[in-house]
Structure formats: C-alpha cells, structure tokens
Automatic annotation (TrEMBL):
Gene Ontology BP term (one): proteolysis
Protein known as: Peptidase S8/S53 domain-containing protein
Molecular function GO terms recorded: serine-type endopeptidase activity
InterPro entries: Peptidase_S8/S53_dom, Peptidase_S8/S53_dom_sf, Peptidase_S8_His-AS, Peptidase_S8_Ser-AS, Peptidase_S8_subtilisin-like, Peptidase_S8_subtilisin-rel
Natural source organism: Actinomadura soli
Length: 655
C-alpha cells in the first residue's frame, strides 16, 4: 500500500511518499537478506543475481535438499554453512526443512623503526640475522604460520623474502586470490586438497609463489585494490625489513616475527564476510596440513551486528576456533583490529519507554580537504542499523532535510521512500527477532547520494515493552561524500565486528610516535574504537578491546611495483619511500599483537587463544594510562602490549 505524507509540500520542497508492504515470505531471513530482496525487486528481479549468505540449520537440515532449492554450499562447520543463493531462490531455501536462519554476508571495511622498541620486541631478537646475537633469545616466529586476510599483498616485496638468498626465496607459502577467476592452468583451493566448498578464485601454492618471487613476476599475482593495505599489515606482523630504502639501512623496518611463514587471502574489502570466514578456514586447514601453529590477522570490520558476538561471521569464527567438543584448539589464535570509529560519530543509544517515543538526529555533511578538494560523490547504499530488545516492537519513520515525514514502518513490514518521484531510502523491519541474540533489527538504507542536512529518525514503541535502542552508521564507501554522522552520538560500543566475536583478540591503538604533538605520546588514539566494560554492565569476557598496541604513524612495507603516492599522500598524509610508507589506525595496531602471538607459539605451540589472551592481559604496560582508571576498560582494554613481558610469562612447551 502507498502511504503519502504530503502536508507542507511545495515545488521547492516536494512531499514524501512511502510505499509500505508486509513481509509475507522468508520470516527466517535477516534484515540484510530482506533488504537485498527489496532492492533486487526494484531493479527488475534478475533471476541470475546471487547473494552470499550464512545458513544455520538443525538436525533436519540436508545440504542436498538445500542445493535442490538453489543453494550453492561453501564451507561447512557444524550447523553453519557458507554459500550463495540466487535471490529468486531465497524463499524456497528459507522454506527448506531444517533451515533455521539465513543471514546475509556483510561487507567488511579496512581499518586503516620505533614501534618494535615500544612493545619491547627488540629485547627478544636482533634486528638482523643471526637473530640470537648478543645472547638474545632469537624469537622470530620460525615454524609458525601467520595468516593475513586483507585486500592485497605485494608478494615480491623484499620484506617477505628470506634475507640474503639468490634467487630470492619467498616466505609466503600460499596465496588465495578470491577475486580473480582461474586462467588456464590455474585452480581454486578445492583442487589442492582443501574443503570442497572452497571452489572459487585462484590458489597459489608454495611452489607457484616461489616461482613468481624468484622471477619477479609481480603482475602474475595482483589485484586492483587502490592501496596496499595488506602489504603494510603483513610487514608489521612478519616483515624481515631486509631491503635498504632511501637513506635507511637494511633491517631498519623489521616486523615482529621476521622468520614466520606467511599465507595470505585477499578477501577483505573486496568480497564479503563469507569470503573472510572461508579464508580463515583455509588458513587453519593449511596449518593442520603442515602441523604448525597459526595466528590470523584481520585488520577490518563492519558495523553489521549488535556488538554481542552474534553475527554469522563471528559465529563462524568461534566454531573455527573450537573442536567438536567445544574446546579451544591448541596453537590457534585470531587477532582483529577494534576499528577506527572512536571519534567518527557512528553510534547512538537511547532508551524508549513502553508506548513511548524517541528520535535520533542524522547529520549528513560534506568532507572537504584543506586544499579545497572534495571526496568523490557517493553512489553506494549507506545504512543505519537499529538494534533493540526483542520483547519490544518499534515502528520507525524518517523526515529528510527540507521535506515532510515518511509513513511508519512496523515489524514485519518493508517500505520504499521517495521524494519527488526519486527513491531516497528503504526501511526493512523483520517480523521476528534474530534467533542468535533475541534482538530485533531495523535496517534503513539510503539510495544513491544522500540528501545533505539534518535527517530526523523517529521511533515509537507499539509492543508494550521498554527497550534500549542502539543505532550504528555503516558506510559502503568510506572515501565518498557526503559523510553520515549521528548527531546525538556516543563513543562507547563503537568496536566493529568481528572484533566482538567471543574467541578473538581485539586490539585498539595508541600513539607511540610523538610527531608534532609531543603531549599525545603514549595516549590513546582518538579514532580507536571504544567498547563496553564492567561499568556498562557487561561481564569481563565481553570487554573490548582486549588491549592496545602502537597504531599511529607506523612505518611498514608498501607496494613497490604499483605505487600511487598521490593517493596515499592525499588521503593519509603518508610519508613514503620506495618500499615503505606511514599509515595509522587499529589496522596497524593489530599486527603488532599478531606478531607477538607468533613468538608465543614458537615458544609454546600448545597454547590456546584462551591462554594467549590471559598472558597478554596479565603482562600489559600501564605507562601514560591515567592511574585512576580501572582496567580492563572500554578504551585501553587491559593496557598496552608488552612483548618482552608476554614472552617471559609464556611457559615453554614440554616434549
């Protein structure tokens, strides 16, 4: 039905029209799947268009029956399977016996010398071979597999080569290009003994990578990401720093674990949470094949989810970290950056009474650089995610700038909102709470360029129960304008998913490089995402981040073959050499912790992620942290990473 809200309309400010319909199919689909269906129908319902999903099933679930319903299964882990399905077949899949819940695969975003001394890693090894010179322990991560899931890696970068080898010998033992389709002679991972569901993209095994590196065939393994985030992250965790760069001698920019083996998957930013979880599964399978301990770095995140560890990607990660009995698997850890949303005005929270009303203010603003240039026009679908207690029922309406209110959208309804005949937004409110957390969700999606100004979002409780309401802004294109910000924002609970998964180590960032502001040395990075702590009523095991590590002005490896210095300098203020660049963010903090865990696994490969978290938390530094603060808390976690103390507290493995 169409609900027109026209009062006050003028030629300059046309009224708003809301077209609302009931959600009569797919009651066991999450809001993202329902949103995809709504927009798919609006685009003409192409029967071949597909969506990546996570499917949860019970004892009646049968993969063959799901496949008959159009589902293409990927990696199976207990009662959770990744895969894809044509949007035309979603309803049939949802009705298949045993299918409990279908969740869309969210798209994660990347979180964009002296730090080794800052975390005291230099007391564990020499900067160059022999690493045990001077009586140092010589801990380098040797024998440990460091997995990096990111957007792109320059495999020929000298920091990933064994020093002083001719021809150069790569330390990268595998590379999964999830983006490219196989060329003649190339095959996906499933053809190399990995899970049958890992049947897409191209797998470069150790021999193939070695050939590329030995002959400097950079463009054989290359993706079109705008900048080399993955190379920078991997260099912090495990770069050897063996290449002279400008005035800097070899072994100046050395990573934490310079002799660890590396495996890379270019999943983040370019694909979805499905690709991320499948990349993690492949890395664990490779580690098992080699009998090696393994730590995975994920420097990215999404605002999808209620920050309680209940997203499909987080549940998949948790299953991966435990055996069939639910026990943590020895020699496995996953490190996730907490996010750079601390000062981004992306989160709001209010309490609504039974039958009460509250409203949020959304500010849509343009970003202009100091030189007067603007970020590119935003043609993507930006979103607001509302989560609230499942006992309540809330209807929502929007008032765009210079317009009139839309109609209300209630649970079990979807709406399309237009102004002057142009679609500006959609609202999807699923009929049922999410079975993984018992909470309800409302998904608001802005279509095309978002009208600048102040949007008013009104909520009205109609179910007779009070509730706490959280809203997060999700940006599809972080570099585009206009920027969306919650006007009445709060900084807590801005840690992104999957850093809120129950079995990961979440890492915030602090300033270890004085730069021009010497007062900021040692302080928390303003952008470092905040979590929740005991003061907010969460139990100790849900406090995020777990700790912080250096994340400001970190020098590490960059793409030396396809550099785009003008891009890096414009967006990041990046100081740049031929092979190294400065970046900042929790993306850079996380791999410091990843590298330290590699050293811990070298010393004791039987540690579980529970052991690792306990040791890291118990050995943190507290300098420059206000002494009146009670740790762990939502800003600092347990404190600052201290590699030397963590390794001293790590028990040696017994034969």
């Amino acid at each position: 039905m169409a609900i027109a809200s026209e009062p006050g309309a003028t030629a300059a400010h046309p009224g708003i029209v809301t077209s609302t319909s009931a959600l009569t199919t797919c009651s066991n689909c999450d809001a993202e799947v329902l949103r995809a269906l709504l927009h798919w129908e609006g685009r003409g319902a192409d029967p071949d268009e597909r969506i990546d999903v996570f499917v949860t099933f019970d004892e009646d679930g049968d993969l063959d029956e799901m496949s008959e319903a159009g589902f293409d299964p990927g990696h199976v882990n207990g009662d959770l399977v990744t895969g894809s399905v044509a949007l035309a077949d979603v309803a049939e899949l949802a009705a298949t016996a045993g299918v409990r819940w279908i969740a869309a695969s969210a798209r994660p975003h990347l979180h964009i010398d002296r730090s080794m001394g800052e975390i005291k890693a230099t007391s564990l090894r020499a900067n160059s071979p022999p690493y045990n010179a001077g009586g140092l322990p010589g801990l380098t991560g040797k024998g440990v597999l460091v997995g990096v899931i990111d957007n792109r890696l320059t495999v020929t970068h000298p920091t990933f080569v064994v020093p002083n080898t001719t021809p150069p010998k790569s330390r990268i033992i595998g590379y999964w290009d999830q983006i490219s389709g196989p060329k003649p002679g190339q095959k996906p991972p499933s053809e190399f003994g990995f899970s049958a569901g890992l049947n897409y993209g191209v797998w470069w095994d150790e021999a193939a990578v070695a050939h590329v590196v030995a002959h400097n065939l950079f463009h054989e393994i290359w993706t079109s990401a705008e900048f080399d985030h993955g190379t920078h992250v991997a260099g912090i965790a495990a770069g050897s720093g063996s290449r002279r760069d400008g005035p800097f001698a070899p072994f100046t920019f050395v990573g934490v674990a310079p002799e660890a083996d590396l495996v890379f998957a270019n999943a983040a930013m370019l694909t979805t949470a499905k690709g991320v979880s499948e990349a993690a599964a492949l890395i664990h399978q490779l580690a098992a094949k080699r009998g090696a301990p393994c730590v995975i770095n994920m420097s990215f995140g999404t605002h999808e989810g209620a920050r309680d560890g209940s997203t499909a990607m987080e549940l998949a990660i948790d299953k991966l970290m435990h055996d069939a009995n639910g026990d943590p698997i020895p020699g496995r850890a996953i490190v996730v950056s907490a996010g750079n949303e601390g000062d981004a005005r992306r989160h709001g929270r209010k309490n609504i009474n039974a039958s009460g009303n509250v409203s949020f203010r959304l500010e849509v603003e343009e970003i202009v650089f100091p030189n007067g240039s603007k970020l590119s026009d935003d043609r993507n679908d930006d979103q607001l995610y509302f989560w609230y207690d499942g006992a309540a029922k809330i209807e929502l309406r929007l008032t765009p700038p210079r317009s009139t209110p839309s109609g209300w959208t209630q649970p079990g309804q979807q709406s399309t909102i237009s102004i002057g005949g142009t679609k500006v937004a959609s609202v999807v409110s699923p009929p049922q709470p999410d079975p993984n957390n018992g909470k309800r969700k409302i998904d608001v999606t802005f279509v095309g360029p978002v009208r600048r100004g102040i949007w008013k979002i009104e909520l009205h409780e109609i179910g007779g129960a009070a509730a706490a309401v959280d809203v997060w802004v999700e940006r599809e294109n972080l570099d585009a304008w206009p920027q969306l910000a919650i006007g009445d924002n709060i900084t807590d609970n801005t840690v992104t998913s999957p850093a809120t998964a129950r079995s990961v180590i979440a890492v915030g960032a602090y300033t270890s490089e004085p730069g021009s502001d010497f007062k900021s040395y040692g302080s928390i990075a303003e952008s470092s995402s905040r979590g929740l702590d005991s003061a907010s009523g969460v139990p100790p095991d849900r406090v995020r981040p777990h700790m912080v590590a250096p994340g400001r002005r970190i020098i590490s490896s960059c793409d030396s073959e396809e550099r785009r210095p003008e891009l890096i300098r414009a967006r990041f203020g990046g100081w740049m050499l031929d092979h190294h660049v400065i970046f900042s963010g929790t993306s850079q903090a996380a791999p410091h912790v990843t590298g330290v865990i590699a050293l811990m696994f070298q010393k004791n490969p039987t540690l579980t992620y529970v052991d690792v978290r306990r040791i890291l938390a118990a050995t943190t530094k507290k300098d420059h942290i206000p002494p009146e603060l009670v740790l762990p808390n939502a800003v600092w976690g347990a404190g600052k990473l201290d590699a030397a103390a963590a390794l001293a507290a790590t028990p040696a493995s017994t034969p």
